[in-house]
Amino acid sequence: MLKYIGKRLLMLIPVILVTSFLIFWAMSLTGGDPARQIAGDRATEAEVEAIREEMGLNDPFLVRYGNYMKGMLTGDMGKSYVTNKDVFRTFMEKLPNTLMLGGAAVLIAIIVSLPLGIYTAIHQNTWKDTAGMVFALFGTSMPNFWLGLMLIILFSLKLHWLPSGGKNGFASLILPALTVGFGLAALITRTTRSSMLDVIRQDYMTTARAKGCSEKRVIFRHGLKNALIPIITAIGLQMSLVITGSVLAETVFSWPGIGRLVYDSISKRDTPMVTGSIIMCSVLMCIINLVVDLIYAFFDPRIKAQYSKKR
Amino acid sequence: MNKRVLAMLLCLVMVLSVMSIGATAYAEDVPAHKDTLIIGTAADINNLNLQQQQDATNNIILKNTHQTLLFFNNDPNAATRFDPGLATDWEFTDDTHIIMHLRDDVYFNDGEKTPMTADDVKFTLDMAVGEGSKVAGNLAGFVSCSVVDEHTVEIEIETYNNEFIYSLASVPLSVQSKKAWESGMDEPWFIGTGPYKFVKWEEGVVCRLEKVADYWGNNLPAGDIFAPGVSDAIEFRPYLEASSRVIALQNGEIDVCIDPPMNELQYLEEDKNVTVYEQTGTRLFYFAFNTQKAPWDNEKLRQAVACAINRDDVLTVAVDGKGTLQKTILNRGLWGFYDDMEGFNYDLDRAKALMAEAGYPDGGISTTLTYSTSGAYANIATVIQDNLSKIGITVTLNPMEDATLKETCVNGDQELYLWRWNEDSKVDFVYRDLYYTGSTSNYHHYSDPHADELIDKVATEKDQDARMAAGIELQEYLVNACPQVPLYIANLVIAFNKDLQGQYFYGGGNHNWSHAYIAK
């Protein structure tokens, strides 16, 4: 198992190389001169040129990329063009906020979607199943910035129960987590339902019932455990997306997370911040995927056996 | 013994009574107020190192913690817009030397009451033009600063300039503590002389300032620009999404909503707890030409386009009519503002006649209009596209992000474009920046020796009547040459808690919050 984890972690190296190269390349293609952004409208051409020279922006693309990667090797991801702050430190300051939002959203999604997915599966083709699927369809198709605004209007403006935005205590986490969590819940409900439907028809379920197991035990012990692999995959995938892509919810709720950081940095042509943040997001995604793979082993003995064989 | 105890008790009672009278007097001086004033900003706070940034949101915060040599007042009708700040007075000893006297009662909020002296002023100005500074452009023309005595400096400039001294009112040039910088402390730029000090800055969440207990200006009377603040603390909280900011105000999470969106003003106006305030602004929005690119190097053609644009419609779609149409190229409220020229009003017949004079009687021009994806530019572009189609000009719309647009315009790759200019203190920052040959922000790529000569004259002419005449001539000349079509000046619109007091608004948005509070 440890060898497998080590191998997976080593795979981060090509991921970082490819990601950083692609981001650097994409940023070099976008218009907008970072030196001019920094210097401001009133700066003379000489002042802008001096900034360009100081930041190495006049160097060829490959030289700039090489210098950046050289810094990375020593743990230096550079400084933001805009704030002059260390990129890694800035990212790490925002990460807990994003993890908090992502974690709360996924938790809400799991609490809602697992029971609902199982319930709709065992009541397939009834009105209960249809209602559950309508909920799922609604959640999937609804843009989360719109849902966010609707929740703000209801819970903040009309009822005055919750703050509309910002990060100011636990109460300010509820609305953004609900907004992101609702969309996730819809997707995980659909996955849970279809996975459970596959399992419910299996012979071992019939055997379990024939043995005299209670329906509850059949569903949760024999059914859900075997249906969990696709569900865990879906949750892991969604968790990765939430962490790296909650920019809309973070903007609507003024939540200071990574999504907003990357969005702002792109608009200000803050190449070190964009590159550093996206590399860190890639690393995070790889780690989450690794954790998901390890969880498979926990739930599925066949996968655990494979890892053991490899060892 | 009992008498002695009684006497001591009486003394104690008397002392306590005197103390309570003092406390009552102080309490009466400070109006009843909510502890913390919370301002919802429309942009993130990204850098509070004064000379490493030029951002309006940062500067609004820094105004509470730092102070400038000159103070820029908000009264466009005042005899002068610049009052003494940390400098009490100044005079030119010759064309290139200014003697400036400083207040002798100011100290820094560093816990040691370190006095502010001429050394600090010299240090600040030298640092501003030194290596790595991002505000050197604010001090254009500066040569050196030397210390004459503890509270006097002499500033040398390259050539006489009417407005050089006004540069010293810009927030990034606020006086900083030499001692703090030389002590090796972390973040020495946070040490200022203002009535508030930094307590907490969590990026993207909040920047909290608290009142300085032993502020040097504590004894100054209310109404003095350096009088102590009222609110115990001021918090700046970024709410980037405009609708969220509006709701946060209505929900009482913030007390001030900067830049409320026009399409939601109605909700705010209906809210009995909110005041929507409006005043003439200084932000000029304009339509312009790259005058080096054919066919827009043709002055008559530019004039024809100016006559074809229906600015009333533009004002309506852009800011719901909350603004002022204008003819001149100078921002409203600036010295020498003159708007009485004939200009180019919406007149399709005149536009067609000018098209014929320009050599395009049937139109037949295809061009591109570049504009920013932010704000209301897309709406303005659509109106102009329709307007110009009526004189035979086919416009292709080319929206792009601000950063890309600036680079495109600096490189001269655009044909027509929409942009803005916000200046409320120095006319040279309009004339020279936008029209002087070779200026980086002269996106018109306009070059005219006569205009350059007039721009220099406005900057350096000492006779104020002759200077005013040159300014008016320059405005008429530029309006006629038409490198840009001024569209409108957007009103300043701001919404706040109805109990807000002590606010000090500027048409350009760089408000002072240091005396603002929510009355109880």
Can you describe what's shown?
Chain A has 311 residues and is mostly helical. Helix content of chain A is 79%, strand content 0%. Chain A contains 15 helices and no strands. Chain A has helices spanning 2-10, 12-29, 34-39, 45-55, 61-73, 87-122, 127-141, 144-158, 171-200, 203-210, 215-245, 247-252, 258-267, 271-299, 301-310. In chain A, helix 6 (87-122) runs antiparallel to helix 7 (127-141), helix 6 crosses helix 9 (171-200) and helix 11 (215-245) runs antiparallel to helix 14. The longest helix of chain A is centred in the middle third of the chain and has 36 residues, at 87-122. The model of chain A has no long low-confidence stretch (mean pLDDT 84). Chain B is an alpha+beta fold and 520 residues long. Chain B has 4 domains: 1-30; 35-57 and 195-273 and 498-520, D-Maltodextrin-Binding Protein, domain 2, CATH 3.40.190; 67-193, Dipeptide-binding Protein, domain 1 (Alpha-Beta Complex), CATH 3.90.76.10; 280-492, Dipeptide-binding Protein, domain 3. In chain B, strands 1, 8, 9, 10, 11, 12, 13, 14, 15, 16 and 17 form an 11-stranded mixed sheet that branches. Chain B has a 4-stranded antiparallel sheet with strand order 4-5-7-6, with helices on one face. In chain B, helix 7 packs antiparallel against helix 9, helix 12 (428-435) runs antiparallel to helix 13 and helix 13 runs antiparallel to helix 14. The radius of gyration of chain B is 26 Å and the shape is globular. Chains A and B meet through helix 3, helix 4, helix 6, helix 8 and helix 13 of A and helix 5 and helix 11 of B.
